[in-house]
Each structure stands twice: as C-alpha cells, then as structure tokens.
Specification:
Largest sheet: 5 strands, mixed
Bound molecules: flavin mononucleotide
Helix content: 25-40%
Strand content: 15-25%
Oligomer: single chain
Order of helices and strands: HEEHEEHHEHHEHEHHEHE
Shape: globular
Amino acid sequence: MTGHPRTSAQAVLGIAARRSMRAPSVFNTQPWHWQISGDTAALRVDPDRRLDVTDPDGRLLMLSLGAALHHAEITIRAEGWHVLADRLPDPSDPTLIARLRIGGYAPTDDTARRLSAAIAHRRTDRRAFGDRTVPDALLGELRRAVEAQGAYLHVVRPEQVPVLAAATARAAADERDEDAYRAELDRWTHRPLAAGDGVPATMAVRQSPRRVPVRDFAPGAPAGLEPGTGHDAGAGYVILFGTADDPADRLRGGEALSALLLNATAAGLATAPMSEAVELDWPRQLLTEMLDGVGKPYLVVRLGFPVEDAGPLPAAARREPDEVIDYPGS
Ligand SMILES: Cc1cc2nc3c(=O)[nH]c(=O)nc-3n(C[C@H](O)[C@H](O)[C@H](O)COP(=O)(O)O)c2cc1C
C-alpha cells in the first residue's frame, strides 16, 4: 500500500463516472447516466439512446453499459479503493443497471492502474492494421482477462475467417436494404456537433478491401479517415461470448469487453469492435456455429498492431459530464 488516497469516496465516484464516459458504445450512443450519492453510484440506462432497429433486444446496449461499468470499477480500484458492484439489483426497476459502492482503502492495484491509464488512449481503430500478427501469448493474456470477468474469448481460426467475412457482409447488405436501418444510421451519423455523440463521417474510414468488411458509417459520403498504408494482414479476430444471453450475462459481457480492449490497448494493440454479424439472426447463427456450439456470441473484435506510419487517431466525441452525472440531494 503506497499511502492512502487523498480524495473522498464521493469524489472518487465522480472521477470514475467521468472516466467511464470514455467507454466504447454502439454507434457512440453513450446510453448511460450516473447518480452519485454518498459512497454509492447508480448506473442507469438512458432509454432514449437505445437503437430500436439495429439493436431491438438491447444486446449491444447492455454490452455498452457493461463497458462503462468496468471502466468505472477499474478507475476506483486504480485510485486505491475497494469497490462492490451490485448488478441489476432491482427487478422492479429495469433502468437501474448497477450500483457501485465504495469500500475501504485498498492495497495498490498495479493491474487496475495499468488498465485505467489505457482508458484515455483506447480508440476504435477502423483503419487497416499492419502485417505483424498478434502473438499467441498475448491472446492467452486477453483470454484470461475476459474469463476473469465471467465471459469467454474465441480466437477465430484462419479457416473460419471466410465464414466471419460472409456473415458480416451478409448482415451489412441486409441492413443496408432496410429503410429503418438507414434512417437510424443516418440519425447517429449526422448529430449536431454540440451533442458530443454519434459517429460522424469525419470518424469513418474510407472503404477498402478487407478480409472482413468494416461497417460503412458514411454510405455515399466521403469518409474522413484514410484506411492507411497497412494491408490488415496481421489482424486477428476474436469473438467475445458467454454461456447465456440474458441481460445479466450481457452486462458481464460488456465488462469483459472493456477488460479485453483495455488490456489490448495497454499491450500496444489497436482494437475495433464489429457488431454487424451479431445484429441479425442468421449471421449470428453462423457465429454460434464457429463457437462449436459452446456459447452465445456477443461481439466480434478485430485486433492488431497499427502500421508504423499510422498517425494518432482523433478521440471520438463524448457528451458533457453534467449531462451524464447527477448528484441527487446535494
Ligand atoms: C457493443 C458495441 C458495438 C460496436 N459495433 C461497432 C461496429 O459494428 N463497427 C464499428 O466500426 N464500431 C463499432 N463499435 C465501436 C463504436 O462505434 C465506438 O466505441 C464509438 O464510436 C466511440 O468511439 P471510441 O471507441 O473510439 O471511443 C461498437 C462498440 C460497442 C461497444
């Protein structure tokens, strides 16, 4: 233990809630809201930020909330406190996703510090990665980090990549054919700048040949980012999955997603979640078969080393903390 934290429990929860706002979320919807009171922070879903067409069952919503929850937990531990999490604590209140309660001072947690430091650097990198492959030992570490959160990681085998590509391309094409999907995508890619959310064309990457296609966030418009000089040859694909598919499992899946992305970032990898193939029944069934029938697929993530001349990626926009964090009663 290296000295006690100087900040109070409530101040630490404020720091954690702010840092959780950097978590990844589907279409950058940031579907979360925090209420902080004394030593407790309640994470609530903001139902207006749900994607009714792309994510009608709220699967990706719950993954996004889980990622924010894990970002907050990691921050609290990195600040030198114990934290207790109560997930979906009130069945009569489905908007209440979790309560975090601060325990006493904790010994220094170097892992939490490393992951907490990665929060500011993590980006969804849709550009092509380089040729260097992800070492097996590192994939093993990522698998263990995911399992510590109660989910699992399947490393897509080379002979499975064409199936993943077909599932993703088919899902993308089917969605593109649907007016309601195009309207929802349009809504979240054309947000007013002040909204601090969504994925504008400036954050989209120009479409280029890939083994597995990347979601087109700027259909029919010039994308703001070049795909880069890499050929994506070293990119690896992993499927985050669990043994069940109910909201509580998805929430744990989101915490595991955060653990995966932050550990990968801390190890120098670039990462990019890809959810098209889990959004529609038939492609999701193909992914389920890739898991040899042992689990329910939550999300695909592309991992790799950026090419040497890849410049820094701009950070995606976020909402203002005072829109997201409340201190009721104070
Ligand atoms: C559940 C989930 C699904 C996502 N699906 C995709 C996707 O299909 N394609 C993509 O390019 N990014 C996807 N993302 C990444 C988000 O678009 C990204 O997190 C958001 O735009 C914020 O950017 P940042 O991750 O760089 O902070 C997904 C993220 C989450 C959490």
